[in-house]
Amino acid sequence: MVHLITGPKGSGKTQQMIELANEKVKTAEGNVVLIKKSHRDTLSVDFKIRAICMADYQDITTLEELVGFLYGMVAGNHDIDTIFIDGVLKQADITLDNLSDFMQQLAKISKDNNIEFYISVSAEKEKIPGIDNPDYHVLY
After folding, report:
1. What is the pLDDT of residues 74-88, one digit of tens each?
2. CA angle at residue 85 from 78 to 112, to 5 degrees?
3. Of the candidates 33, 37, 55, 27, the residue with the CA atom closest to the CA atom of residue 45
4. pLDDT of amino acid 39
5. Alpha carbon distances (Å) from 39 to 14, 26, 44, 113, 139
6. How far is residue 122 from each of residues 45, 52, 78, 132, measured CA to CA in Å?
7. Which of 55, 73, 87, 127 is the 20 to 30 Å CA partner of 67?
8. Shortest CA distance to 114 belongs to which of 17, 29, 45, 14?
């Protein structure tokens, strides 16, 4: 399942993601991963969560490379239970126009590997194309 947290820039989505990740790690049967663009705000992330800063992987610049990165994480760690991706529109070359493609690929990874995804999107849910899918769940 792909869960979405939507809202305009500055509406507190990052803090919501961190709080959700901190709660999830308490009950998760496997590992929890939080992917962020920068190291900012990672001090409040529970130490049991694997925080990944994409600024450390600057060569990942396209949607396909990011999906490959996610597949590599999953292949290298079969214990991943949940992956949080904060500010998805800041990752690689993801835009509102290709976000639907990215979410479809996340849904496939989710089904094939029993992994939950939580992504935050800096946009109102009404402006996100392709959001009407049973594999997606809008939280906010």
Report:
1. 999 999 999 999 999
2. 35
3. 33
4. 83
5. 12, 22, 11, 27, 25
6. 21, 20, 30, 18
7. 127
8. 29
